[in-house]
Each structure stands twice: as structure tokens, then as C-alpha cells.
Amino acid sequence: MAPTRKLFVKTYGCQMNVYDSERMAETLGAQGYVQTDRADEADMILLNTCHIREKAAEKVYSELGRMKPLKMAKPDLRIAVAGCVAQAEGEEILRRQPIVDLVVGPQSYHRLAEMEARVARGGTAVDTDFPAEDKFDHLVARPRALRGPTAFLTVQEGCDKFCAFCVVPYTRGAEVSRPAAKVLAEARDLVDRGVREITLLGQNVNAYHGVGEDGADWTLARLIRALAGIDGLLRIRYTTSHPNDMSDDLIAAHGEVEKLMPYLHLPVQSGSDRVLKAMNRKHGAEAYRRLVDRIRAARPDLLLSGDFIVGFPGETEADFQATLDLVEAVGYGQAYTFKYSERPGTPAAERAQVPEDAKDDRLRRLQALITRQQRAAQDAMVGREVGVLFEKAGRMPGQMVGKSDHLHAVHVAAPGIAQGDLRRVRIVESGPNSLGGDLAAG
Ligand code: 5AD
Ligand code: SF4
């Protein structure tokens, strides 16, 4: 048998990268690699990268710089760059950082083992194709060790929306949905091995339209209803969604499918119609507000999450005020805020930019509002009874920590709770980062 080689994986960016990293580690596992959490003892280092904002992309080059001494000390150490920076920059990575041996884009992960073999023969390998075959047919979707009762499952990839700020349509390619039968098989397998909660992933997950088990085109709602039929699967979530793809059947599912959790990440990016138009979002602020009202009518206790960009080219103080107004009116339980970052090759990068100090100022003001809303949403849980799926032991003896239906961290001191248990919990306190509760009677 070949000697065991060690693989160190570092993942940046979104949850899809987390999912992909696990698949890649498994594929390399079949080549004899076992994972290590120490870069200094690795035979191969794999960085799974993100290109969404400039800072995210630059992190990769600083990390590679830090890895130089490791490569000097061990010349046959293999260094691989995967993910969206790999896709966007390709060969350029080898030029900028010659310690890199292998560059692989998100659609070519199934070729990783073959590329690694090429590198072993003494070359470099770059693959940023968008091949016709389905990488998921070739990637191992069966991690040996699951990390707990929750798992991600990619059902859709890529994006056809072309928001003017975004690299995703270029790095992840056109929208593709996996067939429902494959998703269901993967979900059943996860559940057989102890998973109780599945988060369906896609860059535009609510645009899912995979071929169904009956040969018809299935929507995300249809897929969710089929998944809800799996015994032992207790919770379903999905992320991330575009407002224009929140179809009636998906909204209805929020009211009807008990396993579908009352939490929705529905980015709007800006509250100004002018900016939304310039962003090519293809909807206005009022339409978004009406949509949220309809979803909340279906599921009144829904906790809403979002993404916001401040300082998009052309954004004025009045536009920014419209974003603050929208946030005030809608009310978020959670949200991510970003300063606009110029991405090469995207339309907005060519436009006149907002000065950095204005961006900083707006980011601070928006973050303050969102933090206040987040706090209020968390505090409002006190006195309520919610479901909690327990994931691991807490810091205190006898304590277990899990996530509520609304994705709040909850700690409970109660003997006899096991990882993977879903229990009703009465929330009694709201701390800085988590809620505390007691098991509800019955
Ligand atoms: N600059 C800043 N934020 C961006 N996002 C996407 N592209 C950019 C960019 N160029 C944000 C959006 C998106 C989230 C994943 O990242 O808010 O929803
Ligand atoms: Fe980053 Fe987008 Fe790529 Fe995810 S898909 S890693 S968020 S650039």
C-alpha cells in the first residue's frame, strides 16, 4: 500500500466552498491522502478560495506568501489553489506565486486526482474549464466522518443574473441544477449517517429547476416537499436566494412544510430604486417589501437575513438613506453588510467610484442599525419556546449547545441531551452571542 500522505485544506468564502472542500478532500482521500489540521506537516496544501471582494482574493496571496518557507523546507510539498480565485486568475497565480503547483476552478474538481498525478510526475497543472460533464457524478459525496447533525448539500450552482457588482456568473458559470433523484439520494445517505438538518446550497438556490424523479421539471419547493418526506430528516434550510425567484409555491412551502425552518436569507443589497437599477437587480425596493410581507403572511415568525452593499458606484447620501429606511421598515434578524469592492471584469468596476471615507461612514451607520435589530430579534426570543437541534457540548459542564429554528445559538444545561437531539426549549436569557434556555416540559 502507498504510504499515507497528509492533506491540509483551508477554505475561504461561502458555504458552497465548505461543501466543495469536503468533496475534494474525499476525492484526494481515494488517492491516499488523509486530512491534517497542521499545514507544517502536510504533503499537500489546498486553498479553496473566494473572489467575491478584493480583500477575500488578496488573502490568498498573503497566505501563499506565508507558505513559502514550508515549500522551501520540503520541495515536494504540493500546493494547490482551488475555488473562485483559481477560476478568475488561472495561470496568473503560477506567475505571481511560483510555489503553486496546481490551479483548479470550481467546475473541474472531479479532475483533481488526475491533475495531482500530473504534478507528481513533475509538472504544474491548470484547469479552469467549464466541462460539459457533471462534476458531482465523479466526486465522492460521502464524507467518512461527519462533523455533526447538520450538513450542506449543493443542489444548484452558478448564476445567470449578472448583478453589475458580482463575479459569481464568471467564476461559477451559468445556472445548473442537480437532478432531484441525486439530491434525494445524497440526503437519504446523510440522514442514514446521523444528519438531522440539511441546508440546500446554491448561488441562486431558489432558481432551482432540476429534473424530477418523475421526469418533470421540479422547483425548489417541490424538492423541499420531497426532502421533507425523508424519515429522520428533521430540518431543512436553503441559501442563498434572489427576490425575483421567490415563487408562489416556495412561499406557500414556508407556511406548509413543518421541517422548513422559519429563517430566510433574502439579500436586497440596497433600498434605493436608482441603485437597484444600476445594480441590475431587476426589482425595486417596494416590490421587495411587498414580497417580504407575503412570505411573513405565510410564516409569521420568519427571521429574515440579508446582504447589503454600501458605496455602490453612483450611490448618493439620499440613496443610502433609502437603504436605512428599507432596513427600518423590513426589520432584519441578521444581515451582512459590505463596502462595494471593484471586481475586475464586472460592469460596475468601470464606473465612477464612491470615495472610501463615504463608504466607511455608511458602513458604520448601517452596521449600527443592523446590530440593533439583530439584538432586538435575539432578545425577543426570551420567554418563547423554540426547537433546538443540539450540536456539541458547551463550555460549562453538563451544558449542550445547538441552533434554534431561527438559527440562534442556544445553550441548555441538562443531562441526557445528545448530539443530534431536537428538543423544545424555553428561552430564559439572551447573552452577547447566544441564548440560554431550559428544556420545555413534555
Ligand atoms: N462588493 C461588495 N460586496 C459584494 N457582494 C458581491 N459582490 C460584491 C462586491 N463586488 C456581496 C453581496 C452578495 C454577497 C455574497 O456579497 O452582498 O449578496
Ligand atoms: Fe466567494 Fe462567490 Fe466563489 Fe462563494 S461563489 S467562493 S462567495 S466568489
Description:
Among the domains are: 123 residues, Methylthiotransferase, N-terminal domain (Rossmann fold, 3-Layer(aba) Sandwich); 55 residues, OB fold (Dihydrolipoamide Acetyltransferase, E2P) (Beta Barrel), CATH 2.40.50. The chain is globular, with a radius of gyration of 23 Å. The protein has 14 helices and 21 strands. Strand 17 and strand 18 form a beta hairpin. The chain has a 6-stranded parallel sheet with strand order 2-1-3-4-5-6, sandwiched between helices. The protein is of the alpha/beta class and 442 residues long. 5'-deoxyadenosine (5AD) binds next to strand 15.
The CATH class label of the domain at 5-127 is Alpha Beta
Strand order of the largest sheet: 2-1-3-4-5-6
The major pleated sheet works out as: 6 strands, parallel
Query: How does the overall form come out from the CA principal axes?
Result: globular
- How many whole angstroms does the radius of gyration measure? 23 Å
Q: Tell me the structural class.
A: alpha/beta
Which fold does the CATH topology of the domain at 5-127 refer to?
Rossmann fold
In short:
The chain has 14 helices and 21 strands. With 442 residues, it is of the alpha/beta class. Among the domains are: 5-127, Methylthiotransferase, N-terminal domain (Rossmann fold); 385-439, OB fold (Dihydrolipoamide Acetyltransferase, E2P) (Beta Barrel), CATH 2.40.50.
